[in-house]
Amino acid sequence: MRLLKNIFESICANILPTSCIACGVYQELALCKSCEEAIQIAGLFNYECCKQCGITLSEIEIPHQCCNSCQKNSPYFDATHCLDRYEGPLQECLHQFKYHKRLAYGNGLAYAWNLFMGSELENIDAHFLLPVPLSKQKLCTRGFNQSWEIAKRIHCGKHIEKLPQILLRHHHCQHQALASKVIRHQTVQDMFYLEKKHASIFRDRTIIVFDDVMTSGATLNEIARILKDNGASRVINWVLLRTQQPQ
User: Fold this and answer.
1) What is the pTM of this model?
2) Which residue range is the domain that position 212 belongs to?
3) CA 32 to CA 21: how far, in whole Å?
């Protein structure tokens, strides 16, 4: 099966046209050289960011390597690694993938992650990787979980097991896109849960949680709380795009 997949991908790469996921120009790879260089220079991974929540640090916060918010109210998760800002060149690509079901963009976004973050994080000391889940209702409506579609294609060490089915989510009708930070934290309380028969495998383990976008951190914080309540020792966020914190 793997051989057939490799043959199919090779045929697609050599016969079908490919366009840059950021600017749309036709060329061979998922990112053209111009956009690749732009992200390489200006990507969020180049900046001094909070080691815990991944937000860009102000000058007075840099010596602490931690933002004021995390210093005052430390979240449950222990670290966050982000590829780029939400407002950067990959934003429209993510929108096309997530809301217009342009599934090929998922491959391109995973390619971008592997290109810029793979060598740094591939062999990180962790045991499991979990995508942020969708509720069953949202999954039926969208047809796919965007976080898992990217996460299953990103590179990580063979010692890290990807588990897409163990972390689950209750359905909630309220959209959070324009919600305040306080409302976001309130609406995600007790939103996530683990299959009881699997919960014990996380005891004394380090867990990576992958999400496509991080805004207030409320969702990832609630997931980290659930994981630590079930014995996880460390929770590390891998985030494709990071927004500025809402006021």
Assistant:
1) 0.88
2) 48-242
3) 8
